[in-house]
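If you are new to this repository, start here. Below is one unmodified record pulled from the training split, so you can see the exact layout before writing a loader.
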Amino acid sequence: MIPQTEDLSAFAVSCRRIRKFYGVRSVLTEVNLSLPAGAVLGLVGLNGAGKSTLIRILVGLLKPDHGTTCLLGEPALQLSDAAKARLGYVPQEPQSLGWMSVEGMLQFIAGFYPNWDSEYMWNALIRWNIPPSQRLERLSPGERQRVALIRVLAARPAVLILDEPASALDPVARRDLLREIAVRAGDSGTTVLFSTHIVSDLERVASHVCFLNRGRIVLDATVDDLKETHARLTVARKAADQFSAIQEGEISRRRLRDGGLSLVLKRPADASWPEAFRSAGALETLSLEDLFIELTDRPGAEWFVR
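And here is the target side for that same chain:
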């Protein structure tokens, strides 16, 4: 989370206290996010959690009802042409210039980006078996998504923002994309933010992870820190009364069918787990998938996020 006094322009992508309403429905509530240059952030949440809305705000396509957003050191709603040339963005359902051929669209787009990589463009078209002469509107959803990814990656952006980039890709294409993200971040220092609901993708490439639940960020940490600083405490029914109050570092809780409790806890990186937790029940580390399940609010579940 971003301290209130921290300069947002110091980050490649950042926002503070973002709120967004659609009518009377709150979509985003007090969202704070910061992504340093060269980091790879996986934004995770169920459908309807607010991921696409947040991404559109971050790239300046949607105005928040409250809050501040910066991209490459500039206000997201007032990006200069130079900043736009360093930004790569692919929406969840890319649709543009459908009447043009694949090659025609890519060559047209290339004129807006000084670092355009034609060699990468042609190699990617061949690797993904995309006919350059085919009109975009005649491609399958998966092919259109591949072309959109080629378009944004060939531009060699400093910041790459992808909204569910693997949603229409087959497993081989998804693996290629994740490998490309890792290479760009590692070799070129590209800052990457991608949304997904496929938690296994995070463990392959992400350096940071952010869980969005009902428009609120419920977890924001580096991947390396998560296994060391987060755990699940399972308390038997006979000891559950001892934990009726909110515990230090508690993130979420749910009541088990047998009357016991399951608590998700966070501790400082330089501290150890309190002995009271260790003696009260089973304390276990959590995988990213376990954390996602524990911290994502599902209808009918008897638990809540604090």
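Two things worth knowing about this chain: The CA atoms of residues 237 and 260 lie 4 Å apart. The first strand starts at residue 13 and ends at 22.
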